[in-house]
Specification:
Rossmann fold; eight-stranded mixed β-sheet; two-stranded antiparallel sheet; 9 helices; 10 strands; 14% strand; oxidoreductase activity
Length: 303
């Protein structure tokens, strides 16, 4: 592995207040990056910030408000970031919602598709001009093993024709993967050095595993921590995708163990459903239409 130091670089981590996002942010801070924890709950974000600073008092880290289930705050975040920073080196599309009851975002989208995919799609498009100002900047989008066997039901994206929480979670994670791979194709087609990657954490014991609004019972948390990939290991594919200098863009990174459920980061092969070119293009078009965000690949200042 030839993983880079990040001194002088700026990284945004969505959902960086806990789990995989927090563990990745810790490593980025150790390597010298300036970290923006983009979080819905600013109090939890500040607590995460303090956790990192306790171990790394010299870390450059701050919290900014971002609710991926509300496109107005996605726009607000991008505008605020652009007013303070001239460029962006690293965008980690990490935040996720897993298997809630049928819920709608503020803009009327099904929560998992709206937050996990559409929110990140819009955020990436809005920040793209700043990413294009940095040669070899990177976008890393966190997918899941749940994408396997999933499909995008374009006729029922809002769940109005039936809703199964796990099915819609798989759909949102397939959308993450399709988006990451399609973004890299479009960047390359425009001769842009910015790279897009997809990754997944295997099966990781994070706070996605909740019971409604309640935390899981302590004995289940203990069982999960023994059987599942701990967040510090679950974050390794994200860190690898963000920093490994030998990657070309368009790779899918996951754990190297049996079934890609646990282990150290390595190249993985997406399910065949992620190779559907027609679905990728349609998803891109639908996402632009639903979010009102169009990607501009023409304004690059890369060298």
């Amino acid at each position: 592995m030839a993983q880079e130091l990040l001194t002088g670089k700026t990284a945004i981590v969505t959902g960086g207040n806990s789990g995989i996002g927090l563990e990745a942010a810790k490593v980025f801070a150790e390597r010298g990056a300036r970290i923006i924890l983009a979080v819905r709950n600013e109090e939890k974000g500040r607590a995460a910030c303090n956790t990192i600073l306790q171990g790394q008092p010299e870390a450059q880290i701050e919290v900014m408000k971002l609710d991926l289930a509300d496109l107005s705050t996605v726009h607000g975040f991008a505008e605020q970031f652009e007013s303070r920073f001239e460029s962006l080196d690293l965008l980690i599309n990490n935040a996720g919602v897993m298997t809630p009851p049928l819920t709608k975002t503020k803009d009327g989208f099904e929560l998992q598709f709206g937050s996990n995919h559409l929110g990140h799609f819009a955020l990436t498009g809005l920040l793209l001009p700043l990413l294009l100002k940095k040669p070899d900047s990177r976008v890393v989008t966190v997918s899941s093993l749940a994408h396997k066997g999933a499909s995008i039901d374009f006729d029922n994206l809002d769940g109005s024709k039936g809703y199964k929480a796990m099915k819609f979670y798989g759909q949102s994670k397939l959308a993450n993967l399709l988006f990451a791979l399609e973004l890299d194709k479009r960047l390359k087609a425009h001769g842009i050095s910015t790279k897009s990657f997809a990754c997944h954490p295997g099966i990781s014991a994070t706070n996605l595993f909740k019971f409604g609004k309640r935390d899981a019972p302590e004995f289940l948390k203990g069982l999960a921590n023994r059987l599942l990939q701990p967040p510090v290991m679950g974050a390794m594919p994200t860190i690898y995708a963000a920093t490994e200098s030998t990657l070309n863009g368009g790779e899918y990174i996951g754990p190297d163990g049996k079934g890609q459920r646990k282990g150290f980061p390595a190249l993985d092969t997406p399910h065949a459903s992620a190779n559907n070119e027609a679905a990728s293009k349609k998803l891109w078009e639908v996402s632009e239409e639903l979010t009102g965000v169009k990607f501009d690949f023409t304004g690059q200042e890369q060298s």
